[in-house]
Amino acid sequence: MAMRTCNISARSLFLFNIITVLVLVTYLVDLEKKIANAKVSSQHNSDLLNTQVNGALLPSSFPSQNPTLFYNRVPKTGSTSFVGLAYDLCSRNKFKVLHVNVSKNAHTMSLNDQLRFARNLSSWDLKQPSFYHGQIAYLDFTKFGSTAPIFINLIRQPLDRMVSYYYFLRYGDDFRPHLIRRKQGNKTSFDDCVKEGQTECDPNNLWLQVPFFCGHHADCWVPGSSWAFEQAKNNLIKNYLLVGVTEQMEEFVAVLEATLPIFFKGSLKLYRQGSKSHLRKTNLKIPPKAETIERFTNSTVWQLENEFYEFALRQFEFVKSRTLNPDLSGKGQQFFYEKIRPK
C-alpha cells in the first residue's frame, strides 16, 4: 500500500513538472512574439522618422500611407501640360492618376453627387497615393464629414485666358488637331466680337477663376460678387497647399517637387525636357487691340478677377522665395528644435 502511494505521488509530481514546463514554454513564446512586435514597431517608427537635422526629426515618407491630391483644374490655364507630367510620373513614383469627368462639362455637382464624391474620394483605398484632376469648383469635404484631400491649382491672367479659350473654340489646338470644335468655321475676331457686343465675349464671361476657388455656393457664380471674391481668397489661403500661375509653370513644378516628392520627384527635369511643358497650344490666337482691353478693364468682373489673380501671384511669389534656391532646387530645412528639457 505504501508502495502504491509512493508511485502515485511520483506520477503526480512528474505530471506537475510537465505542466509547469509547458506553461513556461508558452509564456516564453508569447514573450518573444511581443518583443519581436515591439522591434518591428520601433523599426517602423524609425523608418518614418529616420533623419535628424539640427535636432529636428525629418519624416522619410509622407505622414499618410495613401495621400490624396486633388487638382480642380481651371480651363485654359495650361492644365493639360501639367497633368501630362503626372501621367508620365505615376508609374515611376508609384501613384495613381484619375480624371474626374463631370457630365456636360459642368463645373458644379448636385448635392447628392457632392456627397458621393466626397465620401468616395476620401474612402476609396487604391493602395497607392492618388492624384485626382477634373474641372470642378472647390468642394468643402469636411462639410460631408470626409477627410479633405490636398488641393493644388493653377490660374492665368484672366483676359489672356478668355482670349485663348475664344480662339480655341474656333481653331482648336495641336493636342487633338483633327477634333472639330464647337465654333469651328467662325472667323470673327475677338475684337470684332467685343465691338459687336456678342454674348460670347461679354466681360461677364471672365467670371470663372473666382468661382472655381469660391465653390458650390450659388453666389459664387454671380458675376462681380464681392462675397465670392473674398470667399475665393479665403479658400486659396486656407485650403490650398499651392496655387501657381500659368506664366510661371516651371517654378510651380519646382515648388511641388520640393514639397511633395512622393508625387513629383523628377518632374522639373521632365518639364525642362520640353516634351510635356507645352502640350497644348491654340492653333491661332490674335492679341486683342488696346481699345478692347480698355473695355474689359473698366468692368467690375475684370477688376475682381484680375485682383484675385494678382493676389494669387503675390502669394505664389512669397511661397516660391521661401521654398526654392535661384536654380529652382529646393532649400534645406529652415527650422530646428533646441533647449529641449528635461534632457
Automatic annotation (TrEMBL):
GO terms for biological process: heparan sulfate proteoglycan biosynthetic process. One of its GO terms (molecular function) is heparan sulfate 2-sulfotransferase activity. One of its GO terms (cellular component) is Golgi membrane. Pfam families: Sulfotransfer_2. It comes from the Eukaryota. It is a single-pass type II membrane protein. SUPFAM superfamilies: P-loop containing nucleoside triphosphate hydrolases (SSF52540). The chain crosses the membrane at residues 12-29. It is found in: Golgi apparatus membrane. Keywords: Disulfide bond, Glycoprotein, Golgi apparatus, Membrane, Signal-anchor, Transferase, Transmembrane, Transmembrane helix. InterPro entries: Heparan_SO4_2-O-STrfase, P-loop_NTPase, Sulfotransferase. Belongs to the sulfotransferase 3 family. Homotrimer. This is EOG090X088H.
